[in-house]
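Predict the 3D structure for this chain.
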Amino acid sequence: MALHSELWFPSVIWSGMMHSVDNIDIAKFAYRRKKEDKGVVISNYGGWQSSSLTVSENLSVDYLIREILDTEVDNCRRQVGLPPLELYNIWININPPNSYNQLHNHVGAVFSGVYYVSADENQGNIQFERSDGAEYHLPLENENLTYYNATRSTYKAKTGGLYIFPGWLKHSVQGNATPKDRISVSFNYGEKK
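Done. Predicted structure below.
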């Protein structure tokens, strides 16, 4: 007898590279915004996180939202059978040397994500943590890691990289081990209100 397998409760992470975004303009805007915005502290340690951005603050950020994030998020939500979503909030992160983001999730968001404006893998990769308790049941030493038995997944920080994931998926960002700032734009999408 051959058993039929079904995949339930998956944690999907979408990834890709964006090449049409004006990263130089967004980086300049990020530093201007940092001068006038005290920012917030949520998961960031040593870095700056802006308060929520609004439409029309910067044309390049508007393009990122309209042409890339809305399109990609819409494709993701269709793949998993969700109704249309709306942007809840979007913000900028500037992480100087030795700064990082602690393990967290985005309460209330259906999809969350990050777009890297200026980054490389030595500036801190994003890590996703399994949170279903499987680590208490899976063998501790397993040389054959798969999507099924892994407890952590790491994705490289790289300029132009876009990652979209469920808002409830716990994640952190490793420390920046370079003398340059890592700049990213993060966002949350949720149910239309």
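Residues 14-130+143-191 form a domain with the Jelly Rolls fold (CATH 2.60.120.620).
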